[in-house]
Write a structure and sequence with these properties.
The complex is a heterotrimer of chains A (320), B (323) and C (327). By secondary structure, chain B is an alpha/beta fold. Chain B has helices at 48-55, 78-84, 92-95, 102-112, 119-129, 148-160, 178-195, 206-212, 230-235, 240-248, 281-285, 287-291, 294-299, 316-322, and strands at residues 4-17, 20-33, 37-41, 63-68, 71-72, 85-88, 166-170, 198-203, 215-220, 223-229, 305-306, 312-313. Chain C has 11 helices and 12 strands. Classes of the chains: A mainly alpha (320), B alpha/beta (323), C alpha/beta (327). At the A-B interface, helix 1, helix 9 and helix 10 of A face helix 2, helix 4 and helix 6 of B.
């Protein structure tokens, strides 16, 4: 293999992005080089969106708070029995920067530990929802025919039935495990993604490079994994940033209605506790405001990041 | 290597539009041998792209058979067939997945067929063979980062990586700049001459056929109306459609222009009798009547009839004049 | 009555700097004459066409003069420009299929052009004129009530031509009018353009990448490369005995059927059409030129005389004339 000299340009236009000039030894190495380059280009574009960066910062902070919860606040502080000696319904003070609830628990403790549950449920439920949605959407779009008909009808059914009442019914029938709640939220909200993904699959399926893949001898598996999925991914990614906040809100709603996860703390449960303790009537704003704001901020952050991602992906798609 | 590779045997391909059947390919028989270039020429709507797709197994014929080295194409043998027969597409930009690098585009065929061996070396060899040198420089590039001509070379390299025996090229240079066309055509002709490939080129461009084809088949409304050695047909056309087509092509030496009236009819409404007769200059000038074949032109459908020297024509007037 | 273009430069302003699309083009055209402009993607021919009618987007900087009957199009007030557009010169666009409004009848669209310029005409007169125009382009008048999707590609192109002729212009600019059409339909449209040109004494500028077409329709050809005219002269002379190596390559890309030297001998140029943002030093064709010499990389040559009524921007052109003058 000749050493590629910098002076000898191949018979081509000067490339717009820097090309690694050392010979690439293996196929795997090439794949990773490509991924690194892709991510680099994506990140450079993403950084230019101020809203996106702010959103990302908020999300990183929230994720850190959730992950580092045990280090920040002792779990014991959230258990009512341990806090009997604390002042109840105390407004923010030096000892308790965000005040206490009606059981003497520090609001900060509730907020920090609530982040764990809310974000976890949000993320996992959203992922579940998207996985189901993608599987159904791609299957319906790719295979067409009666498979499409059957799956589309099921999808329509789930779309039409309102998510929260359906979730309520399911929780009533099943139990209130954390896992069950995640499952319920995931399974009631996949239909929206499925619809979008199906539409995108239909478009990509008609593209010439799919024909070429078939002409090369590719079967369905290769076409779906190597051509469809990568082209459907942008939609999935952008959709994820909408689905996660939606799942967080669903959990908050269920918890607020009193049928959220049985154990543990979540922002929604905190709001429910606040409602039960008549916090609004009594003016105990530190009781419900932090959790409410937390939910809103996280949801907003996701939306900002989602918008930024769409902005990055769209001009790229157009350019290509 | 000699011998017939591809046999298209009375193939009919149809599709439905608004409930009406369109006979896109209406009885076509054609051979392509190793080491030869056959050009299939015709205007849009004549069915040539549909025929190409049915040869590639992307569209199913409603009757008739496609045979490759004697065996019928289809069913279980389709996958193996796809290693030996490859397609070059009209739009090289659309034919390459914009998210895959050039390396991945060329390696795709190798991966699909699980071909063992040093993959980067095979990819490099294919790229170099198709004029992209040094090949390693192109490995990490994306299709939108190279020019149109180079993209087409990538598509050809992707096909050649599988070491096929036959190439089907659908308008390989139509969307490329004029100055780049010659190089791509030269590449294709070299592959045929040096590696004994068969090449079926689908095009509307008679000049392209003149440039690289050994034999030519002229297609009109789903059927081949003239077939034979390229030089012979382009210099001494016999079917009135071929004559008219040649007369309006700017590249032909100044012939008297015969501009046909109207536009190519719809494959949903194929005329009775000879499908060309409503636009045929011989009918309109009265020549057909003079020869006594007008009635047959209007009522009798016909296929290719062999004339001399391997030159076959589907025309009542020509057949009449031979006797 | 004529069009005179003097040293026209068009540069597009982008984030990363200026992109020169047209770099000093000059030519003359009298009404009744036809000029063909041939070139490939990126050579600036479409930009040139739009520039003549001052139809370029705001981010394009234009210098030089476009003199229509002595009046500079770029010095006109907007009101005068609007009055002159379509009545003096009109343009038939590339990709006519997308230039027509899909939700309006074609008669209405032709009428729109007429109404914009002649407010005194009554409805009946407009309708009569629309019929007249449709007949002129070979379509029956009753098709005025059809929608674009009801017409074929060739018919839509005819409608575009009818629209362009609506106000009886003296100059017609046709930008790739037959590119998406079949050979036979293309011949029909070209025949129509020829007839109209002769009947109405139109000046015509025909822009295309297909050099061989121009020998049919135009008396003179100008070949463009990288924003400049590199050769101009009578069309059959330029096509058959080109002086500039690029014109030679372009001409060879459309082999003459019956010419055995091109049988089994496809010829093309190495490399790719130039990137306007990254032009080489010296002659812009030098990286691809089969007859390149050392000085080609240093001096960027202007159009030189290369015979009677012919010019070419190549050192070999000048040498040819000198050699001819000496003998």
């Amino acid at each position: 293999m000749t050493a590629p000299g910098a002076a000898q340009a191949p018979s081509a236009q000067t490339p717009s992005a820097p090309i690694p000039s050392a010979p690439i030894p293996s196929a795997r190495g090439l794949a990773w080089a490509r991924r690194r380059r892709s991510v680099g280009i994506f990140w450079a574009e993403f950084r230019r969106s101020r809203a996106g960066m702010i959103g990302l910062a908020v999300l990183i902070v929230s994720a850190l708070v959730a992950l580092l919860a045990p280090l920040l606040v002792d779990y014991g502080d959230t258990v009512p029995i341990n806090t009997i000696s604390n002042p109840e319904r105390d407004p923010p003070s030096f000892d308790f920067p965000l005040g206490t609830d009606d059981k003497g628990r520090s609001m900060i403790a509730l907020l920090v530990w609530g982040a764990r549950t809310s974000l976890l449920v949000g993320l996992v439920a959203a992922t579940l929802s998207i996985v189901i949605g993608a599987a159904v959407g791609i299957a319906a779009g790719y295979f067409g025919g009666w498979i499409d008909q059957v799956l589309s009808r099921i999808e329509e059914a789930f779309l039409v039935i309102p998510t929260i009442p359906l979730a309520i019914v399911m929780v009533a029938v099943l139990n209130r495990d954390l896992t069950t709640i995640i499952f319920v939220i995931g399974i009631t909200s996949w239909a929206g993604s499925a619809r979008l993904i199906r539409a995108q699959t239909l478009t990509v399926k008609e593209r010439l490079y799919v024909d070429r893949a078939r002409a090369l001898g590719a079967g369905s598996w290769h076409i779906v994994t190597r051509h469809l999925l990568p082209n459907v991914m942008p939609i999935i990614l952008a959709n994820l940033t909408l689905t996660v906040p939606s799942a967080i809100l669903s959990e908050a709603t269920l918890s607020f209605l009193g049928i959220g996860p049985f154990e543990g703390i979540s922002w929604g449960k905190t709001l429910q506790a606040a409602a039960t303790a008549s916090a609004v009537k009594l003016g105990n704003w530190w009781f419900f405001l932090p959790a409410g704001l937390a939910i809103t901020t996280v949801v907003l952050a996701f939306t900002m990041v989602g918008n930024a991602i769409e902005q990055v992906l769209n001009p790229k798609l157009r350019e290509r | 290597m000699t011998g017939v590779l591809l046999e298209v045997d009375d193939v009919h391909v149809q599709y439905r539009q608004h409930g009406i059947v369109a006979r896109a390919v209406d009885g076509v028989s054609l051979d392509v041998g190793a080491g030869e270039v056959v050009a299939l020429v015709g205007e849009s709507g004549c069915g040539k792209t549909t025929l190409a797709r049915s040869i590639m197994g992307l569209a199913k014929p409603v009757s008739g058979k496609v045979r490759f080295t004697g065996e019928v194409v289809g069913g279980r043998r389709l996958r193996a067939y796809r290693r030996k027969v490859q397609m070059i597409f009209q739009d090289p930009t659309g034919a390459l997945n914009p998210r895959h690098t050039i390396y991945e585009a060329v390696a795709e065929g190798l991966r699909v067929h699980r071909i063992r061996g040093d993959e980067p070396a095979l990819v490099a060899a294919a790229l170099a063979r198709c004029g992209l040198r040094p090949p390693e420089r192109f490995f990490t590039r994306y299709p939108h980062e190279v020019s149109g001509g180079q993209r087409q070379r990538v598509v050809i390299a992707g096909a050649m990586a599988l070491d096929p025996q036959l190439l089907v090229a659908d308008e390989p240079v139509a969307s490329l700049d004029a100055s780049v066309r010659g190089e791509i055509l030269k590449l294709l002709r070299d592959l045929v001459d040096q590696q004994g490939l068969g090449l079926l080129v689908i095009t509307h461009d008679l000049g392209l056929a003149w440039n690289i084809a050994d034999r030519i088949a002229v297609m009109y409304l789903g059927r081949i109306v003239e077939l034979g050695p390229c030089e012979q047909i382009l210099e001494h056309p016999r079917h009135p459609y071929t004559k008219a087509l040649l007369s309006v092509v700017p590249e032909a030496k100044q012939m008297e222009q015969q501009i046909l009236v109207g536009e190519t009819p719809d494959p949903k409404l194929i005329p009775a009798g000879c499908r060309f007769h409503p636009r045929c200059p011989l009918v309109q000038s009265g020549e057909a009547e003079r020869l006594g074949v007008l009635g047959r032109c209007q009522t009798e459908d016909l296929g290719l009839v062999d004339a001399a020297q391997g030159h076959a024509v589907a025309c009542h007037a020509v057949s009449a004049q031979q006797h | 009555m004529d069009l005179s273009v003097r040293d026209l430069h068009v540069t597009y302003r982008t984030r990363t700097g200026g992109v020169p699309a047209v770099r000093g083009v000059s030519f003359d055209l009298t009404w009744g004459q036809s000029l063909g402009i041939a070139g490939e993607s990126g050579c600036g021919k479409s930009t040139l066409g739009a520039a003549l009618l001052r139809l370029l987007p705001k981010d394009a900087t234009v210098t030089g003069e476009v003199l229509l009957n002595g009046e500079d199009v770029y010095a006109m007030t907007f009101g005068r420009l609007r009055a002159v557009r379509w009545t003096e010169f009109a343009i038939v666009f590339q990709g006519a299929l997308h230039a027509l409004n899909p939700v309006r009848e074609i008669g209405w669209q032709i009428g729109e052009a007429i109404e914009l310029h002649d407010r005194d005409l009554g409805r009946k007169e407009i309708r009569a004129r629309i019929s007249e125009l449709l007949e002129q382009v070979g379509l029956p008048g009753r098709r005025a009530t059809d929608y674009p999707h009801q017409l074929s590609g060739g018919q839509r192109q005819r409608v575009m031509i009818a629209m362009a002729l609506a106000c009886r212009p003296h100059l017609l600019i046709a930008d790739e009018p037959t590119t998406a059409l079949d050979v036979m339909v293309q011949a029909q449209v070209l025949e129509l353009l020829q007839e109209l040109r002769v009947q109405q004494q139109l000046g015509m500028i025909f822009i295309t990448h297909d050099l061989s077409l121009l020998t049919y329709v135009c008396e003179r050809i100008a070949v463009m490369y990288a924003g400049r005219i590199v050769e101009e002269g009578p069309s059959d002379e330029v096509f058959e005995s080109p002086v500039h190596p690029y014109s030679a390559a372009l001409s060879a890309a459309f082999p003459t059927i019956g010419d055995h030297s091109s049988r089994m001998a496809p010829t093309g140029l190495a490399g790719d059409p130039p990137d306007p943002t990254d032009l080489p030093s010296g002659c812009s064709f030098s990286p691809r030129c089969p007859r390149v010499e050392a000085r080609c990389h240093e001096i960027d040559i202007e159009l030189q005389d290369a015979g009677p009524r012919r010019r070419a921007a190549c050192i070999h052109a000048a040498a040819g004339v000198e050699a001819g003058a000496e003998t």
